[in-house]
Amino acid sequence: MNKAVIAIIVTYNRKELLSKVIDAVSSQSYPLKKILIVDNNSSDGTKDLVSHKLSPLIEYKNTGGNFGGAGGFYHGFIEAEKYTYDYLWLMDDDFMPTIDCLEKLVSNSPRGITQPVRYNLDETCAELSPLTYDLSNPFKINPKGVPLNKYLKDLVEKPEYIDIEAIPFEGPLISRDVVEKIGYPDPRFFIFCDDIEYAIKAKRMGIPIKCDLRAKAYRLLVNNQSNDLLSWKGYFMLRNLFYLHKKYGTNVFIRYKPVMLSIGYALSCIMKYRFSQLPIIWRAFWDSSSLNNTELYKPGVKRK
């Protein structure tokens, strides 16, 4: 008996990429129960594009505002509750699965969370999910451990599955019992770390998180977060990372590590004459306890 799978695709102003993603998801060798397109109020004609693809399989939901990836998936989870399902399959508008990606993910009726392996269009491995996510060691600047793409380079014999401790919301298959235990993603994150928090909650509940090396997908855009820190996204990267340390740090040193991270990054910006970053660092630190001021730092908002 086939398991009922609902795909949730969150999009914002990338209709050309979205069209490719919809076609790839609609063509899966494993039949989907529903494809939910969650549109963060795009202004590039996304609604018109999707209207030509609507069918009993595909449903369109406009959130009425730009709520980021976190808010988009939050709305997607709510929409999915209108149906009975065994799994949710999450992705954004630049994740393109191969035709048998879902078939591989579902094949062993996994419980918990199962992530496919992402590749760039040039076939280089783009799967950055870390084997560990350490919120106990205050001496680690980055809690992310070895990323999967680096780990796989050193493996001679590759298993079917590898245990990981963090996921992106780019392709994970999440079983219904996980949703019932954890609930919905937190929309307050807007972008960044909503997926990591979901994985942290899963890990602490003893829910398995695995990467299925047989399941393959492509990223239509190259991931380049090194430039994001200096863009409007930098505020959210810092604020949300600080929040994870404060809320999920296993000791007092981790919970206060955002202080040192803020000071260190501020000094780095001063040395590089990036003085405009200083108020952003301060605001991100101040807001990280409650994840507020999202509206102030959304793209296109003029700040005083």
From TrEMBL:
It holds the Pfam family Glycos_transf_2. It comes from the Bacteria. SUPFAM superfamilies: Nucleotide-diphospho-sugar transferases. Residues 8-107 form the Glycosyltransferase 2-like domain. GO terms for molecular function: glycosyltransferase activity. Keywords: Glycosyltransferase, Transferase. Belongs to the glycosyltransferase 2 family. This is Glycosyl transferase.
